[in-house]
Amino acid sequence: MNKVKLAQYTALVKFLGAALGPDYEIVLHDINGKDQSVAAIANGRISGRNVGAPLTDKALRFIADKTYQDQDFLCNYTGRSKDERTLRASTMFIKDDGGRLIGMLCINFDPSRYQKASQDILKLCGLDGEIFLEDNHLHPAGEVENFSDSISEVTDTVLKRYLKDGIPPERLTQEEKMAIVKQLEERGIFLLKGAVNEVATRLHCSAASIYRYLGKINKQNESGN
């Protein structure tokens, strides 16, 4: 994203953050930046992130599977804050004239105050239970987006989905480690600077081993196997 566009969207982030209020987090990701990180953010307390935080696991997936090629935006999918609050997330893909992804503008709504108000009203009416702002229409089935403020948190979140329960990483076979690396590659985790070293540490192997696995995976993809 060039300096002009970056300045324009940064101003938009500030405007939307002020106009929509404290329950809406507005985030600008610069995809072409050196570290593909948060370039501007308003109301960042919602997810606990600041400028410089890495792309989320879901944003990486959007890039890896090229979701942006067929859609200009995605609305009302589920996110989860670091303190386990459920958020309603939406992302607009920012593209250049050639359709190449250069950024993402994200809005994350925290409904917790309204959920509590709904529950309090029910109690006043003598009804027990909880009202959630989620439903199947607003939140399509799929993985929840997790918000992290460091590369280690992103890789840790994704790895937890793939490491076998009860089996420590050091006991995984090479085939099992390669299978995990393949799944992480498909999710775009290695787009993050420093991800190779983080994954190597978690899998108890060297960075060279991760690069070797990635090389084999690329050859398999090229051959169609």
TrEMBL record:
Transcriptional regulator DauR-like HTH domain boundaries: 156-214
Residues spanning the signal sequence: none
Pfam families, alphabetized: HTH_22, PAS_6
UniProt domain YheO-like: residue ranges: 6-118
Domain of life: Bacteria
Protein name: YheO-like PAS domain protein
Organism field: uncultured Anaerotruncus sp
